[in-house]
Task: structure prediction
Amino acid sequence: MASPAPQSPAAPRRRRASPLVRRADLVAATVSCLARLGAKGATGREICRRAGVSHGLLRHYFRNPDNLLLETYEQLCEDMLAQLEAAAMPHAADPLEALHRYFVAVFSDDWAGPEIIGAWMVFWQQARSRADFAAVSDSFNARQRALLQRLVTQLPQRGEGGLPMADAIALLSAVLDGLWIEYYLSDQRTPRGRCIALCDAAVRRLFAA
Amino acid sequence: MASPAPQSPAAPRRRRASPLVRRADLVAATVSCLARLGAKGATGREICRRAGVSHGLLRHYFRNPDNLLLETYEQLCEDMLAQLEAAAMPHAADPLEALHRYFVAVFSDDWAGPEIIGAWMVFWQQARSRADFAAVSDSFNARQRALLQRLVTQLPQRGEGGLPMADAIALLSAVLDGLWIEYYLSDQRTPRGRCIALCDAAVRRLFAA
DNA sequence: TCGCTTATTAGACGCTTGCCTTATAAGCGG
DNA sequence: CCGCTTATAAGGCAAGCGTCTAATAAGCGA
Result:
């Protein structure tokens, strides 16, 4: 009774948090909003609502909702790339195993889970019309492909009859993206295990000796 | 001077049109809006603005903007599927040629041009959260894959060493989708010609004798 | 030529959004 | 223990949206 009557159940969020934590909260809420509600529903106010803070706080940490979106995109790319590297690198001894780990990481719940995957679609959409988003997308794509290339070139050298190396890598990359979309559209139709198995099959087929 | 002073330059759109034409106008404007402005910018009012009609007209033809979106999706799928069939069917004599025509049609400006391609991304996004959009997406996907399968099974029978047929088709389909995304994200990085060439290469590689 | 159907416009209403400004209090340094 | 920084909340404002209603006129049939 002494406390100022917590009338609204979600209101007393008056505890301070370190700026880093709050920023992370808002970024996480943004991802969740994008995944569940799409571009239209991921409004600044809704994001703050989901993060459990007042809508004025967004402006205190980011210039505007668009900026928050961009920063979320950057961080998501950075995190995914780091995890992809971490998954694939410790297996330099067995290139096939390294590639397999890479595939597993790509379809991990951390990036392709139902709470995330929808956000990528929104970012890609932004990348077509906004230069800043396109820059992030380009950089991410280039680094991801470089990593893939590094893994692939460690495969046992194959004969001369196969595809040009550039074509094979482009095709493998396309397979990854395509299966990812497939998985995105319905994780029932093409479950994760099959996606990974198909990636492995593609490697064997595209880089056959 | 006699006419009622056409003060607003875009206002005197008072000419009647057949309902079918107007509906088509609105659908076309919707696609354009989605491609240029994304999900957020494709508001009912903006669509009508771009179609050159007053915003009240939307309600006269569609229950609400969402319904217009869904109908646009349906029609786009229908049109694309029809054109894919038309492109591939008259070449039953040469299966490879039929597949090539199919690829050309997939990357045609009609479906992957800058004025269209962005719309698909929005539809896919909707398909994740809305059942009606998902139904359209599923149906379209199934029919497209059935067509692809029909084309592929006409290839000269290959030996026993290759991939299971289901895997090969799934991979070819993934290659198509993946290259499509690549092309979407930047038609500079992977131009259309290269996409088509890579598809042809994938066919040779996946369905080798 | 007239009148009826209906395609089309114009406007009002309530709601939500993004932006900004002001007021509060949490928690650290002294 | 006090006071300053600043994280946080709250509210006001204009603009835009979706929905709905009422008014207008285009063009066909009689």
Summary: The CA atoms of residues 3 and 12 of chain B lie 11 Å apart. Confidence is low (pLDDT under 50) at residues 1-11 of chain B. Residues 14-16, 43-46, 55-56, 58-59, 64-65 of chain B lie near DNA strand D (CB under 10 Å from a C1'). Residues 65-88 of chain B form the longest helix (24 residues).
